[in-house]
Write a structure and sequence with these properties.
There is one protein chain. The strands form 4 sheets. A 4-stranded antiparallel beta sheet has the order 3-4-5-6, with no helix packed on it. The chain has 1 helix and 13 strands, in the order βββββββββββββα. It is globular. By secondary structure, the chain is mainly β. Helices cover about 5% and strands about 50% of the residues.
C-alpha cells in the first residue's frame, strides 16, 4: 500500500509514499507535478505532490478503480472503475469528481489523446473500447461551471463546426 519514488539517474529508491489499499494504476501530470494512484480496494485515488513526495489529497471514485490517465491541457484525470462500469472524471485543480461516465463492462485501462481530447477506455468483459469526447462532458472550458459557452461548444462539435470560433461560419 505504498508507492516507491525512484531516482532515474541512480535507479535507487529515494522515498516511499503510503497510499490507500490496493494501489493499481499510476498517472502523472508533468505540468502540475501531481501523481495519481488508483487504489483498487479503497475505491479512491491518492493525489501525490511530486515536489514533496507526499499525499496531498484522496478522491473517492467508483468501485475497484484500475487504470488512470491525465489530460494535462485541461488538468482532468480519468479513472476506469472496473467494479462500477464507469469512468470518474477528476478536476485536477480542485481534486474532486466533476462527472461520472458509464462505459462497457469491466473497464480496465484508460488513455487520453490530448490533441483531440478523446479518452479511450478498454472494457474487459464486454470486449469493447469506449471513446469519450472530452468536449461533450459538460464543462468544455474547464472553469468548473457548466454554462452557455460550454453548451455552445458542445453543440458546435456535434454539428461538425469549429468549437473555438463561433460566428466564423455565419453568413
Amino acid at each position: 500500500n505504498n508507492v516507491s519514488v525512484i531516482d532515474g539517474a541512480s535507479n535507487s529508491v529515494v522515498a516511499i509514499v503510503n497510499v490507500s489499499s490496493g494501489p493499481v494504476g499510476v498517472g502523472v501530470n508533468a505540468t502540475t507535478n501531481r501523481i495519481y494512484v488508483t487504489n483498487n480496494w479503497s475505491n479512491n485515488v491518492s493525489v501525490i505532490d511530486g515536489a514533496s513526495n507526499s499525499v496531498v489529497d484522496t478522491v473517492k471514485v467508483g468501485l475497484s478503480p484500475r487504470g488512470v490517465a491525465v489530460d494535462p491541457t485541461y488538468n482532468r484525470i480519468y479513472v476506469a472503475n472496473n467494479g462500477s462500469n464507469d469512468v470518474s472524471v477528476i478536476d485536477g485543480a480542485r481534486d474532486f469528481v466533476v462527472t461520472t461516465v458509464n462505459v462497457g463492462n469491466g473497464p480496465r485501462s484508460v488513455g487520453v489523446y490530448p490533441g483531440v481530447h478523446h479518452i479511450y477506455v478498454t472494457n474487459y468483459w464486454s470486449d469493447t473500447v469506449s471513446v469519450i469526447d472530452e468536449w461533450l462532458l459538460g464543462d468544455a472550458n474547464g472553469d468548473g461551471i457548466v454554462n452557455m459557452g460550454d453548451v455552445i461548444k458542445a453543440e458546435r462539435m456535434i454539428l461538425g463546426l469549429d468549437p473555438a470560433t463561433p460566428g466564423a461560419d455565419a453568413n
